[in-house]
Amino acid sequence: MRVPRLVGLMAVDAREAAAAQGVLLAAPDRPDFRRAVVDHVVRQYPPPGVEVPRGAVVTVWFDFSEGEGGGGAGVREPRVPGPGGGGLRRERDGSADLFESVLR
Fold first, then answer.
1. Which among 2, 33, 4, 35 is positioned nearest to 17, based on CA atoms?
2. Is the pTM of this model over 0.70?
3. Distance CA 62, CA 57 (A)
4. How far apart are CA 19 and CA 92, in angstroms?
5. Beta-sheet pairing, 43-45 with 24-26
């Protein structure tokens, strides 16, 4: 038998999926796991699709560990700083006419 994919499921659905596949669930971060309903599984071990014997224990976690994510504004893409002030505008500071220095 293969381990079902439980990540993303609510606790109640994860318990049902595990029972249907004949595996047991353990949740080390949730002592009240049997009463949890709407919390979502964020991690599992063994991963989905791994062959295990009937009655094997699949460990699921509902909270991210320190530094693993779980809070914030989603995906953050790198931001490249815009061009700095400079170029022709910087060189002509203080000069009203661009060709003033050339005509002298």
1. 4
2. no
3. 16
4. 76
5. unpaired
Structure tokens at 83: 């061009």
Listed in sequence order, the DSSP H helices in the chain are: 11-21, 87-91, 100-103
Identity of the amino acid at 4: P
Two tokens at 88?
A: 């022709």
Cβ atoms 59, 44 nearer than 8 A: yes
Burial classification of residue 52, based on how many CB atoms lie within 10 Å of its CB (0-12 exposed, 13-18 middle, 19 or more buried) = middle
Cβ–Cβ < 8 Å for 44, 62 = no
Give every strand in the sheet of 24-26, ordered side by side: 24-26, 57-61, 43-45
Q: Is the peptide bond before 46 cis (omega within 30 degrees of 0)?
A: yes
Distances 15 to 12, 19, 23, 92 between C-alpha atoms, Å = 5, 6, 9, 71
pLDDT digits (tens, 9 = 90+) for 7-42: 999 999 999 999 999 999 999 888 888 888 888 999
